[in-house]
Amino acid sequence: MNLVFALLALFCLVTAVAAVVSRNLIHSALLFVLTWLGIAGCYLWTGAEFVAFSHALVYVGGISMVVLFAVLLTRPARADEVAALPPVPIERILGGLLAVFMVASVLGSAIVTSRFAAPAASAPVLTVRRLGELLAGPHVIALLLVGVILTTALLGALLIAAPGPGGRRPAPAAGADLEELPDATDRGTASESMRERGTR
Amino acid sequence: MTPDAATLAGPWLERAPLIARDWLVGWLPESLRWFASSLLAIAVLIGAFGLLFAYLTLAERKILGRIQNRPGPNRTGWAGLLQPFADGVKALTKEDVVPRAADKVLHTLAPVSLVALSLIGLAVIPFGRHLVAIELDAALLYFFAAGAATELSIFMAGWASRNKYSLLAAMRALAQLISYEVPLLLSVVPVVLLAGTLSTTEIVVAQGGWGFGFWPHWFALTPWGFSAFAVFMIAALAESNRSPFDLPEAESELIAGHLTEYSGFKYALFFMAEYFGMAALSAMAVTLFLGGWQAPAAFLEVIPSYAWFTFKLLGLLLGFIWIRATFPRLRIDQLTRLAWKFLVPIALINLGNAAFWSLSGSWTGFWLPLRWGISAALVVIPFLVLSRALYAGLGPRVYRYAPS
Questions:
Q1: What is the structure's pLDDT at A186?
Q2: C-alpha distance from A136 to closest chain B C-alpha (Å)
Q3: Which residues of B touch A54 (CB under 8 A)?
Q4: Which tens digits make up the pLDDT trace of A82-138?
Q5: What ipTM is given for this predicted complex?
Q6: For chain A, first and last CA: distance in Å?
Q7: According to the model, what pLDDT value does residue B280 have?
Q8: Within chain B, which residues score under 70 in pLDDT?
Q9: Inter-chain contact A178–B142, Cβ cutoff 8 Å?
């Protein structure tokens, strides 16, 4: 069983590193989705079925869309999706390694020094029903507070995105960017984009 | 995993699939049996739904043809029965065109992942009394998580094609899918509330029995259940990109949308995924609202449970085809307006309705008609008020160029 966990952890790490290293933002986002799937797999491995599936539903189905839309709508030209970074100098590599080392040492020392309770002889079986009873019983205040916070965030987002009194949007908002997409054909196969390049 | 056939009681027909499985798996050593029976379940699911897909396309073309007063495909094989296989061979032998500027990996991965994600939802559907591939405590969550992940494939298809129409259409498809995800999930919540479980098998068991000896306890036959069923089916139509919500892939809108740059078998895979998704959502509707494998009357229980499930599933699928032949396509603004201004409020009110139904479970005698009456009023009044409000200023239609 530990082999399964090792494979899952390796999968998460590899996809996460690939997401960070990738120059293409869309590829990064999609690789990140794979990382989330791996984390859901870890939950499944521990037997937390409910958490695993809700994690997949929320992150793979919802958050991934938010990320992808954000990438597409904030980049006016298609070429910008590929980060135009200069070749990596040795200083940046060293700096990155140093940062990794520092984070790893802090986390590692925290794990090493803290005392964990001895694992129970048998894992507690938590059914979805019991989970619901716990959420709606002892932890109902926390649940309500989370709900209120999320609703407030949603209302705030609506306030920012909704058109003002004169029907004008208060800030340059999401929908406007799609019109610029035809401008963004790169390495075009269509003759149209060739013509555009010629006039430019 | 489902139990051994030997330990089960009941009529022979009911146990026949399990007996067949155990006989097949019995040839293998003990340690491999669980693996073999899982593989067998997968193979049977893919085989059955693959055949269903093939003949559903034929049935669709035939029925659409009949409704439009033409015969439909009738040349290949007896009365056109071999048409799906001819189409399959045609799709396989076509050239696979990949645009030069396309992201080749994602362009190929998109249809494959779409088919895979559409298929895995079928694993938790109880097709019969003892026929479910995997029994999960949180089966409903699993099903809808798998369904939500298909949106990523559509995005990948649109983005990787490097075609502005594909990308625009993919964004519109995503807007549609995300919008209709909300009423779809909201219409499932009342069922979870009343059944008190997320497990599909237990939801079907909760719909067993008959009120007054003849009225099945199916959720669709209660006022709140009927409302939830209607919302679920409309949202399912939109989720599987079926007419009248087929804007993402319609020929008249953005030249077939995210499918523009696909050809040959990849194109066929998209259609396969559409039919698998449609079948999976219909199967889920049968499970949640139409009593799953339960027979409609006690004396009809001689017909095995999986046959009842098949009848109901085919009925819903034929309904999908009928709707496609009948209704005109919605415009994109009408589409999102229907989701957010009509279906979501109806589903939310219905949630309260289900809570009332749950609380009034002990009402009997004189109170029973009152319970049904209040619940029915909670369905009909919001429907009337909302539809009147949304139609205000839109009708009646004026025929400007036709003689009156």
A1: 41
A2: 13
A3: 141, 145
A4: 666 667 778 888 988 899 899 999 999 998 888 777 666 666 667 777 888 888 888
A5: 0.81
A6: 60
A7: 92
A8: 1-9, 251-254, 403-404
A9: no
- Candidates A128, A181, A187; nearest CB to B167: A181
> Are residues B155 and A56, on separate chains, in Cβ contact within 8 Å?
no
At A14 the pLDDT is 94
A178 touches chain B (CB under 8 A): yes
CA-nearest residue of chain A to B156?
A30
Q: What are the residue ranges in chain A where pLDDT is below 50?
A: 172-200
* CB proximity A188 to B under 8 Å: yes
Q: For B150, which residue in chain A has the nearest alpha carbon?
A: A61
CB atoms within 10 A of CB B252: 9
Indicate whether A90 belongs to any domain: no
Inform me whether the C-beta atom of residue B193 falls under 8 Å from chain A C-beta atoms.
Answer: no
Domain hosting A63: range is 1-73
Amino acid B183: pLDDT: 92
Number of independent structural domains in chain A: 1
Three-state secondary structure readout of chain B: CCCCCCCCCCCHHHHHHHHHHHHHHCCCCHHHHHHHHHHHHHHHHHHHHHHHHHHHHHHHHHHHHHHCCCCCCCCCCHHHCCHHHHHHHHHHHCCCCCCCCCCHHHHHHHHHHHHHHHHHHHHHCCCECCECCCCCCCHHHHHHHHHHHHHHHHHHHHHHCCCHHHHHHHHHHHHHHHHHHHHHHHHHHHHHHHHCCCCHHHHHHHCCCEECCCEECCHHHCHHHHHHHHHHHHHHHHHCCCCCCCHHHCCCCHHHHHHCCCCHHHHHHHHHHHHHHHHHHHHHHHHHHCCCCCCCCHHHHHCCHHHHHHHHHHHHHHHHHHHHHHCCCCCHHHHHHHHHHHHHHHHHHHHHHHHHHHHCCCCCCCHHHHHHHHHHHHHHHHHHHHHHHHHCCCCCCCCCCCCC
Q: What is the pTM of this model?
A: 0.82
Residue type, B123: A
Q: Which of B166, B226, B174 is nearest to B336 (CA)?
A: B174
A43 in a structural domain: yes
Within an 8 Å CB–CB cutoff, is residue A127 touching chain B? Answer: yes
- Report yes or no: B141 at the A interface, CB cutoff 8 Å: yes
- pLDDT score for A196: 42
Distance between B148 CA and the closest CA of chain A, angstroms: 5
CATH number reported for the structural domain that contains residue A51 in this entry = 1.20.120.1200
In a domain, A5, yes or no: yes
**Any CB–CB contact under 8 A between A181 and chain B?**
yes
Strand partners for B128: B131
Q: Is residue A64 part of a domain?
A: yes
* Chain B residues touching residue A185 (CB < 8 angstroms): 162, 164
- Residue pair B172/B248 in contact by the 8 Å Cβ criterion: yes
